[in-house]
Amino acid sequence: MGYVKYMVAASALALSAGTVQAGEIAVIVKTTNSNYWQNVQKGADAAIKDHSDYTVSFDGPASESAVADEVNMVENAINRGVSGIVLAPSDPEALVPSVKRAYEAGIPVVIIDSALSDSAKPYFQSFLSTDNCAAGEAVAKRMIEKAGDSGKIAVMSYVPGVGSEIGRVGCFKDYIAKNSKLDVVNTFYSQSQMAKALDQTTDVLTANPDLVGIFGANEPTAVGMGRAIVQAGKAGKIVALGFDGNNDEQQFIKDGVLDAIAVQGSFQMGEKGVNTLVDLLAGKKVPDFVDTGVVLVDKDNIDTPVAQNVLY
């Protein structure tokens, strides 16, 4: 990962940190309009309290599909000479040139949540994320366990081609195909818009009255899916599994609308992302990959410490 070359720049930054007051760490995420990403911000804010030499800024586009806006935010951070960048890329390719430019400017970059393409590997220093493939498989196992070995299911996904989506949904469908006779009738993409997910779920429930299971693969998608299930009178009659864990999804668990939700450590992404960046700026070696974990939360364990530590 170009580590030796990078360390020269990191050392220079670490030395200069003593002469510059409160260097900025820019945390740039896919969108600020989501409880999930706001929880990342809480983690970043918690981490920075232990590092008085730095401040944290937090930014993101209005929606996860506004990729060009996120690119501009990274470029602006580079132009104003931030000390480092924690980035959740909304597109695996579009952010690569900006991450390369940060590297060339001696600005360390820590990637969180979603992977960049392999071409970016020399230019960022660590990747912190849920193992989305393992998470997708865990949800698939739950689907088979609760919905049975055969019948129709649907997948309500979010933005096609995003690193987290490829692992999460791809491995879910692969596991279903290899380990059951469940038939995925369709995969829908909500663009991470709750209202769109609601409409898409309403359509698929209407078109497939015999559907036995449905998977909503991120927060806004799962919330829209849950609301459509309630409106269609299908609550408790279909195995519905979600991803992420905001208040709406937690209430759906308690009400029996969702059977389970796979919850990522979003707070941990922000907290560990900032701490990893500070370690880099101090000249320390950091892991190439940090798994921030996932917990399958259902009605039986939602009030336990294990679940409460990841819900938001």
From TrEMBL:
Annotated Periplasmic binding protein domain residues: 25-285
InterPro entries per UniProt: Peripla_BP_I, SBP_2_dom
Pfam families, A to Z: Peripla_BP_4
Gene3D superfamilies, per the entry: 3.40.50.2300
This protein's record includes keyword Signal: yes
Cellular component GO terms held in the UniProt record: cell envelope
Keywords per UniProt: Signal
Leader sequence segment: 1-22
Protein name as catalogued: Periplasmic binding protein domain-containing protein
Species for this entry: Thioclava indica
Upper lineage: Bacteria, Pseudomonadati, Pseudomonadota, Alphaproteobacteria, Rhodobacterales
